[in-house]
């Protein structure tokens, strides 16, 4: 099976067709799709959220996607906390990048996690695992997930709710594109900030 075939499975039309096919299951397929992305980051969260909004309407689709995405992150965090002492996670903990990310989260707490979850391009599966390995409190993590995912999911849902309007209303399309670019830029700034913190930590450790 080649990559092109796999990509065809995860187009907006394909996901909408699947949601229609399993409509008898109600909102469960929509919740399951966004939940599974927390375990398998290769899955296209952007497409799942847009499909839910197009299939169920803006507000219902938003709630379905937000519930699935938040539950997925919380489950991964909880599982990591439960099995974080296993041999595999000892190896992960020793990785320099993972350790630096863990310490960054522990030092800054809620703020950076909230920002990361706001961005639609964040590899949330990785963030969930590293947060679970860190010593951040459950309360801080839950709040960061619920609020950050709320912003991210609503932004994507708004885009996916009326795709025709994106074509026929160029001003609205430009505004949405500006928001997406702003989120992307903000995500890069957070990433750069993290890299700067890493470098400073390395310099201090070498002195």
From TrEMBL:
Q: Name one GO cellular component term.
A: plasma membrane
KW Transcription regulation (keyword) present:
no
Database matches in Pfam families: VTT_dom (PF09335)
Q: Where in the cell is it found?
A: Cell membrane
Q: Name where it mostly resides.
A: membrane
> Which InterPro entries does the entry link to?
TMEM64, VTT_dom
Which parts of the sequence belong to the VTT domain?
44-161
Keywords per UniProt: Cell membrane, Membrane, Transmembrane, Transmembrane helix
UniProt lists the family membership as follows: Belongs to the TVP38/TMEM64 family.
Q: What is this protein called?
A: TVP38/TMEM64 family membrane protein
